[in-house]
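Supplementary Note 2. Why include the ligand at all?

Several targets in our set were suspected to adopt different conformations when bound, so apo predictions alone were not considered sufficient. For every target with a known small-molecule partner we therefore ran a joint prediction. The input for S-adenosylmethionine is given below.
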Amino acid sequence: MGPSRNGGVPSLRRKSARADEPRDGRRAGWNVSGAGVRARPQRPASGSEANDSECVRSGSGGGGAVVWVGRGGIRSPAPLAPGRYNSKEFFTDNLWGTLPCSWQEALDGLNPPQLATLLLGMPGEGEVVRYRSVWPLTLLALKSTAYALAFTRMPGFQTPSEFLENPSQSSRLTAPFRKHVRPKKQHEIRRLGELVKKLSDLTGCTQVVDVGSGQGHLSRFMSLGLGLKVKSIEGNPRLVERAQRLDQELLQALEKEEKKNPQVAQTGPRHSPYHVVQWVDPTALCGELLLPLDSSQCGSARLLLTGLHACGDLSVALLRHFCCCPEVVALASVGCCYMKLSDPGGYPLSQWVAGLPGYELPYRLREGACHALEEYAKRLQKAGPGLRTHCYRAALEMVIRRARPELRRPGVQGIPRVHELKIEEYVQRGLQRVGLDPHLPLNLATLRAHQAQENRVVAFFSLALLLAPLVETLILLDRLLYLQEQGFHAELLPIFSPELSPRNLVLVATKMPLGQAFSALETEDS
Ligand SMILES: C[S@@+](CC[C@H](N)C(=O)[O-])C[C@H]1O[C@@H](n2cnc3c(N)ncnc32)[C@H](O)[C@@H]1O
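The joint prediction is reproduced in token form.
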């Protein structure tokens, strides 16, 4: 039952997370009991913000920063402020100077592995966590709160067992299903495909609709691997053409295998996915999406909608179709690209989040939520030269602003082997990329001074990244509550290994209660 149905306060259990504990995911997040719902936030009953918030004031250093911990989530003066998130503006906007002095003292001089361990809470294997100074309470509170309020991203399995023998070939997919599919995608299609199959069986679905199906890897596995009837909807015709070619190739490979091995031959007919080229308008109902493959099922079809990394508003479109259409009985949606969400329209969806003071998520916070925290922590632990790019890019922004002040944060992707370049070489290439004169006179002394602050830039970026899971939590929690508010049953389950696939939470929803069966959806089949 959702908050609007029972009008009450959602019950909540939150696992504790200590600031100095490693972030293994299992300690963090909401763990909520209630009618078929795993995750729910606590709605304050009443009262002023001061009553239901905890205000922690820095006792050390000269910063006097305030971090509010309360119903609006967390707010701190520096890293959460709109426009202060992107490390590209580290020098142009003096981002380091926006941090309280006590935070600067704690973070200054920390090398990348120390940042991974102390700030992100992800120590190297066997590493003992030791602070070299006493950190201000405000910084510890931010770190601790960011852990505690973010959904757990740890699935019920450790390193995916399918890659123990060979890191690039899932042992749980047969060779034809692995062909042309990268390991990350192998893991994703297998895990999500198996969840969809279980959900389809539990809810008596007659057809799965894979929306934003791309090259059709998930659709292909669900139909030809798991025997589901699948319609695949994708807006890009080139991807659909490739998907159809891959379907044919797989069918031939499976037939060949059967000839060699008649005892494993499939009994019934094989159904390839049915591909449709169509852009789904997120603001309207899509007739094609609802049309059953079997015309005799008009009026009796039971559809399950799924989307693997359905970006931006596409995930929202799935939710709306689920809510509005009686023939859609189940949903399994993994979102991504939160920065592409329409504003307004894509967030917030729920009345609950819309009612929170300060619920707005500016573009850069949503963009930050798409970063891969676990992968970045590994990069920090390795302290590879690639981390230099943050500082180089921030220095380039200074030069760009001076040459053309109206040009802000232009994309300069694709400069190869940045770590082998001197800072001035990088800046010259960057200027060229954004259409400026690469031979502009450069102040080498200033560039070197910027380069000397490399660790500070990385520290600032890490600080911002600390909040990424929290922002993602708020976006997904909003979707979950939107479904609950209309009386549907919903859970958020971490199904992919976050190291392999950082956008790893699947929103599962049904119109009938599944009770304990929800938990079985994420378990690894033996
Ligand atoms: C991140 S990709 C994921 C592709 C695929 N599901 C996978 O995981 O391999 C998102 C896909 O959704 C498609 N897409 C995005 N918005 C769409 C829309 N409104 N209608 C149809 N397709 C859309 C894109 O063209 C892209 O192929």
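The radius of gyration is 25 Å. The first strand starts at residue 13 and ends at 14. Comparable summaries for the other entries are listed in the accompanying table.
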